[in-house]
Description:
It contains eleven helices and twelve strands. It is of the alpha/beta class and 285 residues long.
Amino acid sequence: MFYMIGLGLGDAKDITVKGLEAVRRCSRVYLEAYTSVLTVGKEVLEEFYERKLILADREEVEQEADNILKDADISDVAFLVVGDPFGATTHSALILRATKLGIPYRVIHNASIMNAVGCCGLQLYKFGETVSIVFWTDTWKPESFFDRVKKNRQNGTHTLCLLDIKVKEQSVENLIRGRKIYEPPRYMSVNQAAQQLLEIVQNQRIRGEEPAVTEETLCVGLARVGAEDQKIAAGTLQQMSTVDLGGPLHSLIITGGSLHPLEMEMLSLFTIPENSSESQSTGGL
């Protein structure tokens, strides 16, 4: 059997009982290591799961799926994913490949950022299409995702922005030279995402367009959702560009305009004080 198992959002203990039982039955256990991270390292997971973990990077999962699935028709193999298994399309491709090879599979679900964002008080059924915000470079500053934010705002729905993760990335020079030298991991913060959004707003004004989002648009920043030191901050997009929510992983929500009174009351628990650039806790700012 090929098991695809969600690990949840926090630490080693967020795996479900069903998932843990499956892991301990497996002869090989892979840990997907590029779409998200937990608050603990590989060694902590190995100790709790009582299994050695094989790190699987993007290249291996996307190009060498058969290596992961090898012998899964005669023994149990697990593929562990932070959050829920279907948080990334790559994982659907693994299931399709297993099916083509005649390998039976089983998916064991868990919490993901897609539903855990409800912790800030915004109602999940009022979210529109999710977008990803990538790190800009000097020569590449994509704005196309902003059209989906605009559409969500027009529909009165919130936008969950998933922020970029750079793990096992190569510099252009090393890539050209074929050198397997990788850059240090980078994780986009809420304030970096907000700064890029503010630049897009300015660019649209320069082009004579009416931006769907302004400096005063209400946003919510979230950090390390599911962990004990989770932080939430609610404020304007301008405030989000300076707020410090600490270490990764971060997410940003752009609200859809009109909020239900209950949503407003919940967000008031996390409001950034005037003239303050730092959040103090998860329960109040």
